[in-house]
Amino acid sequence: MSDEESAGSGVIRRDRFSGGPARGFLSSLAADERIFAADLAVDRAHVVMLAEQDIVDDDVAGEILTALDDVEDAGHEALPDGEDVHEAIESAVIERVGPDGGKMHTARSRNDEVATCIRYQLRADVLEVVEDTLALREALVETAAEHTETVMPGYTHLQPAQPTTVAHYLLSYEAAVARDTARLLDAYDRINQSPLGAAAFAGTPFDVDRERTAELLGFDSVLSNSMDASSARDFLAETLSALATHATTLSGLAEDVIIFANKGYVDLSDDYSSTSSIMPQKKNPDTLELVRGSAGDVVGDLTGLLTTLKGLPRAYNRDLQRAHGHAFDAVDVVANATDVAAGAVATATWNDETLADEAADGFSTATGVADLLAMAGLPFRTAHEVVAEAAAEAEGENPSVATLDAVAEEVLGASLWEYVTRDAVEAALDPAQSVASRDSQGGPAPSAVATDLDAAEQDLATDTEALADRQDALVAAAETLADEVSTYE
Ligand code: ARG
């Protein structure tokens, strides 16, 4: 037998299976463009490891690695037909190398291969979203720092509740986005584990070095159990949950700013607004409406993913081909929405005067007056009753000091001035002084906000480093892999 014959045709046989009318239905080749670069990296790391383990000769490894460079240069669109990118790249390698190209797929399966590719690509995508969350936090912190004294109405049930400041409001979202960052970084650490070498699900008799391929690909660790490694997709669920949570945070921020723009509290920059094709005067907050709407896509993706994964038996099932698309869609939607939210916040103008004028509307200082009476020794419930009575008397207006005093006489049978001074009541009715008085930890008083601003800046610096560490590790691994590949070519 000649070498050629013993090696076979090297062509992936499709004559028996999946060449029929369902071929297009089975194929993920178009969608797999997203993992084209990942698959090339995974192929390279695998081939280097096969050579190091003497499973494949160095010269064959060199030919395969050279062919992979050529396949990369030609691009995804130049790939031959295939059931997926893994099969198509293998065919393209065999076209260039001949039957020995088929040695690339020794000691692995498309099942561990695709799981590795998804993780390889998704981790980079997640780091981009993390970066976007940091930019949003920076915009929130910087704008907050300019507005620690900018008093504004605060709401519950969308009704005026208590005066607060723009800084306190913005930092409330900064805190939520910081937790979103943390959830994404947590998810990243579980994405970044290597399934490669698990083969179909049941391991391989070849003496593979799974730690080595993990290292060459920049994974932090190996997923040991081969059945788990090739079939687990909980990392997608975790990532999508973190993305959906963040998208939900963004939708709340967007909704608030849309409402604030409606009330004239904030002006969006023209770059983040749209006009109407018919109503020339319109300036609409379309970008933020799309941010708000993005949450729908992401929640839909999470639901789609979990529904696909629910009840799947071990080990690999082809349903899984439909799982990761949800994560890639969500990560793109969230990256864009976060980026736009950051830009909108950074360029918006807060209208200090309008905000100050309306800060006390709806008797929003009522709680402060009740607190004042309670601090003077009245039970808070009694103080609440006095102020509630005064609010009722004032019929939608803010009660005067005289009204408060008259109500106190009625309810307490004593003058208000037996408890508090007139100056203190006037201060409590003033929104800026009301805010300044609430200096408990995390409160809106400028002094309390200053402490929270410092902490937010420090957390931002810590997370920026955490991101850089992960990015640097990936760059270093890519360089190591390229160096190793070059020794065979
Ligand atoms: N394209 C498939 C996926 O995305 C991987 C191929 C595994 N196919 C198989 N028949 N075992 O999940």
UniProtKB/TrEMBL annotation:
Source organism superkingdom: Archaea
Principal location: cytoplasm
Every Argininosuccinate lyase C-terminal domain range: 363-436
A Gene Ontology biological process term: L-arginine biosynthetic process via ornithine
Domain Fumarate lyase N-terminal: 52-300
The EC number(s) this enzyme carries: 4.3.2.1
Keywords: Amino-acid biosynthesis, Arginine biosynthesis, Cytoplasm, Lyase
Any Pfam family the entry gives: ASL_C2
Tagged with keyword Lyase: yes
Cellular component annotations (GO), alphabetically ordered: cytosol
Catalytic activity field: 2-(N(omega)-L-arginino)succinate = fumarate + L-arginine
GO molecular function: argininosuccinate lyase activity
Pathway in which this enzyme or protein is active: Amino-acid biosynthesis; L-arginine biosynthesis; L-arginine from L-ornithine and carbamoyl phosphate: step 3/3
Matching HAMAP family: Arg_succ_lyase
Family to which this protein belongs: Belongs to the lyase 1 family. Argininosuccinate lyase subfamily.
The protein's name in its UniProt record: Argininosuccinate lyase
Species the sequence originates in: Halogranum gelatinilyticum
UniProt gene name: argH
